[in-house]
Structure formats: structure tokens, C-alpha cells
């Protein structure tokens, strides 16, 4: 027995020297030249850390309440929490096999040999007999070259990846709630503009009818005024439908039925734009973006899978032991003479697997290369998203100021045209043209205000706002299901 154990130990030491665990080779970090423009104008952006609850920069209590409810009841987040629980259970299974496995056994059998059995012909009795057994069985695989350890590491990395996946879902849900909310407020602003323009158009219709009855205006002027009013009402109906659809989309994000938020979302305007946006520094992007951390965790899992596949080429050495009692009568089961035991090493040496081990290693290496490409793709995509979001934010801010100036001049032009029309020094065409120009300017300014707010949402989604490393433990905690 001792010689066998020494031989197995010597063989294990020799083979262990041949096994080499693969090392993680993360792709080189990407630092594009666009990072030099990260901070932008000092009046708009700052290098302060990205806030986890960035939506509070809008100072809108309704938006804050919606975000809190979405964090509790969003169904995508609940599904992500269950994926975290699944990964945690798989990690527990991977860790369990690294420990000795102990099981208790107890059995009773009663059997008899056939009269035609060869043993009976040799003199064995055919009378029925009983067998009682009671004992413990134990086994332990000696993880000498890290197969079980690598499987444990892979499961742990996948748990990290699922937790970061839940964090990425939080970022996505927070951004989607804010985006839908701001689109809703933009639609409501357009509705208010449309209602005001409908009132003005109705007044112009009455004025054109009056002037036509008095012979001052033509029938064409009255028809043109009514056509303008009908067009405004058509656009207003479209905005009302858009508002209802956006309110329902928000309700879906919160796990609520259609129409559940209509009363809460009525009667408020577009939130004020933040005057200063903390965007952090370029080197923080990889730590702030959970999708980058998720890709890195998947890369670690792929490396561990290679180690486990390599270890499969070496023999599996374990120890097995059993102790207990065996007797023909239940009364003799606890006697000293009924004791039994067994102990010894086990050796599993893969001799011929038909190429299975080579294929599994090739598969693990291919998945590792794919994980490395996915990591680089995620990082590069993050930089592009940030660059595009910064550009959009600067563009919308500048466009908003230009449209405000243009709208002010449009109001002046409409006022002058209306006075001239009432005094009879201009025809209705000039009023209609000025009115349509003002309507287009107001609508474009409202759309620009919405686009400016959405650019803030896109920027913080690109920066990984809505999550931080300090919230990782909370991100890995399963969420309770909503009502």
C-alpha cells in the first residue's frame, strides 16, 4: 500500500512539472486622440467623477422617482438578477468538487442463487440469504495540476461577468427611462406649442372670414387660413399619439400596465438642462463601463477554460476510502467481526479519446481568441460612443442658442406682419408666411431642447453612468420580483 502511494506521488510530481497554466493576456488599452478633447469647454464639462445617479443633474423629482421604481421593478433587471443567481449556483457546484466527497450508505438485500447457476453446480447453496451493510464512503480528487482550480476560476469569472451584465442592464434601463421621459416631455412641449398655434390659427381664420365678408380679403385668404389650421390640428393629433405611446413605454419599463402613469406624467415641462456635466477622465472609462468589465471577466473565464482543457491531458489521481459493517444478520451488524474497510489511490489516465481532448483544447483556445476580440471591440465601441456623445452634446448646445436667436426674430416678423395686415398695408400671404416660419422655429427649438437633453442621456450611458464599482456587491444581489 505504501509503495503504491509513493509511486503515485512521484508520478504526480513529474506530471505537475509539465503542466503550465495559461496567463491572461488582455489586449492593449485603447487611448484615441479624441481623449484630448474629453473635458471640452470649461463652462460645460468637468473632470469630476461621473455620478452614479446622473439623472439628478436635471433636478426633476418625477424623473428621480421613476428611476427608483425602475430599479426595483424593471423586468429586465429581475431577469439579470436571476442570471447572477444562476452563475452563483454554478460557482458553488465548481467549488464543491474540490472538497472530499463523503456519503453514508445503508442497505439490506435478500437473494438466492438459481438452481442452474454454475456456482450451485460447484456446491453453493440455493437457500435465500440476507446481507446487511452500513458504512461511509469517501473520495477526493487530488487537483495536482489545477483542473478543478481552473474550473473554479472559470465559474468565478462567469459570476463576475453576470454581475457586470446586471450592472450594464442597470445602465441601459436608467438611460432608457431618462430617454423615454425626456421624449415624453418634449412631446408635451410640442403639444403645448401646437395648441397655442392652433389658437393663433383659429384667430387668423376668424380675421380672414371677417375681412372677406367686408370685401377686404379674398376667398383664397380664408381658405389658406383654414388649411393652416387643419395642418396644425393634424400635427397636434400626431403629437398626442406620440405622448400616449411614450407614457406606455415608460410604464412598461417600470413593469406597469398601459396608462398607469398618465396621471403622474401630466402637467410638467421639459427639465432644465444641467449647466455643468461631470464626465470624469479618460482613464476611468474602463472602470466605469460595466460592459467593458464584463468582457474582461469573460476573457478571464476563457483563460481558465484553457487551463482546465490542458489539465485534462494528465491523469486524474484521487483517494478513495470506505469503512463500515457487513453481516448476514441484522443482530451481527454492529459486531467487531462484521467491520470492513477499503482505502487506496485511484488513477484515471486518458489513453485514447478519439481526439476529444485535442478538440476541447482547440475549442477553449478559439473561445479565448473570440473573447479577446470581443474585449477590444467593446473598448473601441465605448470610445466611439463617448466621442459621438460629446460631439452631439456640444452641437446641440450651440444649435439651441442659435435657434433661440432665430425664434426671437421670427416673433418680431410675425408681429409686424399681423399689424400690417390689420392696417391693410399688407396681404394675408405675408402673415401666413411669417406664421408658418414661427411655427417651424418653435417646433425646431422644442426638438432641439429635447435633443440637448437626450445628448446628456447618451453621454452618461456612454460613460457608464448609473452604476459604479462601489455598487458591485449590490448589483450582484438578486432583486425581489415586483407585484
Q: What is the structure about, briefly put?
A:
The protein has a single domain, classed as Outer membrane efflux proteins (OEP) (Up-down Bundle). It has 11 helices and 6 strands. It has helices at residues 2-16, 61-73, 75-96, 118-121, 147-213, 219-253, 285-288, 290-311, 356-423, 428-462, 472-475, and strands spanning 45-46, 101-111, 129-142, 277-278, 316-327, 339-348.
Q: What's the CATH architecture? A: Up-down Bundle
Which shape, going by the Cα principal axes?
Answer: elongated
Strand order of the largest sheet: 2-3-5-6
Oligomeric assembly: single chain
Any idea how many domains? Answer: 1
- What is the fold named in CATH at topology level? Outer membrane efflux proteins (OEP)
Radius of gyration: 37 Å
The percent range for helix content is 55-70%
CATH H-level superfamily: Outer membrane efflux proteins (OEP)
Low-confidence stretches: 1-21, 473-483
| Average pLDDT reading | 83
Strand content: 5-15%
Q: Give the N-terminus to C-terminus distance in angstroms.
A: 63 Å
Strand segment tally = 6
Number of helices: 11
Please summarize the sheet with the most strands: 4 strands, antiparallel
Alpha-beta content class: alpha+beta
**SSE topology string:** HEHHEHEHHEHHEEHHH
Amino acid at each position: 500500500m505504501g509503495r503504491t502511494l509513493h509511486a503515485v506521488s512521484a508520478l504526480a510530481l513529474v506530471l505537475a512539472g509539465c503542466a503550465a497554466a495559461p496567463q491572461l493576456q488582455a489586449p492593449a488599452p485603447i487611448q484615441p486622440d479624441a481623449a484630448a478633447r474629453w473635458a471640452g469647454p470649461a463652462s460645460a464639462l468637468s473632470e469630476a467623477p461621473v455620478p452614479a445617479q446622473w439623472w439628478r443633474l436635471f433636478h426633476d423629482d418625477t424623473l428621480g422617482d421613476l428611476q427608483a421604481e425602475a430599479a426595483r421593478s424593471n423586468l429586465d433587471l429581475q431577469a439579470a438578477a436571476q442570471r447572477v443567481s444562476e452563475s452563483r449556483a454554478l460557482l458553488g457546484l465548481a467549488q464543491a468538487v474540490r472538497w472530499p466527497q463523503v456519503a453514508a450508505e445503508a442497505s439490506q438485500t435478500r437473494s438466492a442463487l438459481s438452481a442452474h447457476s454454475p456456482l450451485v453446480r460447484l456446491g453453493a447453496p440455493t437457500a435465500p440469504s440476507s446481507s446487511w451493510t452500513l458504512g461511509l464512503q469517501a473520495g477526493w480528487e487530488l487537483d495536482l495540476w489545477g483542473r478543478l482550480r481552473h474550473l473554479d476560476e472559470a465559474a468565478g469569472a462567469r459570476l463576475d461577468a453576470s454581475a457586470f451584465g446586471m450592472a450594464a442592464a442597470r445602465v441601459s434601463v436608467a438611460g432608457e427611462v431618462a430617454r423615454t421621459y425626456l421624449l415624453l416631455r418634449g412631446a408635451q412641449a410640442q403639444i403645448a406649442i401646437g395648441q397655442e398655434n392652433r389658437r393663433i390659427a383659429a384667430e387668423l381664420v376668424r380675421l380672414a372670414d371677417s375681412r372677406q365678408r367686408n370685401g377686404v380679403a379674398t376667398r383664397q385668404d380664408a381658405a389658406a387660413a383654414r388649411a393652416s389650421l387643419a395642418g396644425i390640428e393634424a400635427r397636434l393629433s400626431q403629437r398626442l399619439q406620440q405622448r400616449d405611446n411614450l407614457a406606455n413605454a415608460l410604464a412598461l419599463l417600470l413593469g406597469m400596465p398601459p396608462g398607469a402613469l398618465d396621471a403622474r406624467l401630466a402637467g410638467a415641462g421639459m427639465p432644465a438642462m444641467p449647466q455643468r456635466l461631470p464626465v470624469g477622465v479618460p482613464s476611468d472609462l474602463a472602470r466605469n463601463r460595466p460592459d467593458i468589465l464584463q468582457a474582461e471577466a469573460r476573457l478571464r473565464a476563457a483563460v481558465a477554460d484553457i487551463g482546465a482543457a490542458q489539465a485534462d491531458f494528465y491523469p486524474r489521481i484521487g483517494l478513495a476510502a470506505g469503512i463500515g459493517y457487513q453481516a448476514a444478520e441484522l443482530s451481527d451488524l454492529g459486531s467487531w467481526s462484521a467491520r470492513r474497510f477499503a482505502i487506496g489511490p485511484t488513477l484515471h489516465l486518458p489513453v485514447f479519446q478519439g481526439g476529444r481532448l485535442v478538440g476541447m483544447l482547440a475549442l477553449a483556445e478559439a473561445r479565448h481568441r473570440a473573447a479577446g476580440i470581443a474585449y477590444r471591440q467593446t473598448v473601441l465601441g465605448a470610445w466611439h460612443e463617448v466621442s459621438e456623445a460629446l460631439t452631439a452634446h456640444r452641437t446641440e448646445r450651440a444649435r439651441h442658442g442659435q435657434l433661440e436667436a432665430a425664434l426671437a426674430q421670427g416673433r418680431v416678423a410675425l408681429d409686424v406682419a399681423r399689424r400690417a395686415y390689420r392696417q391693410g398695408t399688407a396681404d394675408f400671404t405675408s402673415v401666413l408666411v411669417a406664421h408658418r416660419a414661427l411655427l417651424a422655429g418653435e417646433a425646431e427649438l422644442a426638438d432641439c431642447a429635447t435633443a440637448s437633453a437626450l445628448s446628456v442621456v447618451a453621454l452618461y450611458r456612454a460613460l457608464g453612468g448609473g452604476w459604479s464599482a462601489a455598487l458591485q456587491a449590490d448589483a450582484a444581489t438578486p432583486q425581489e420580483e415586483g407585484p
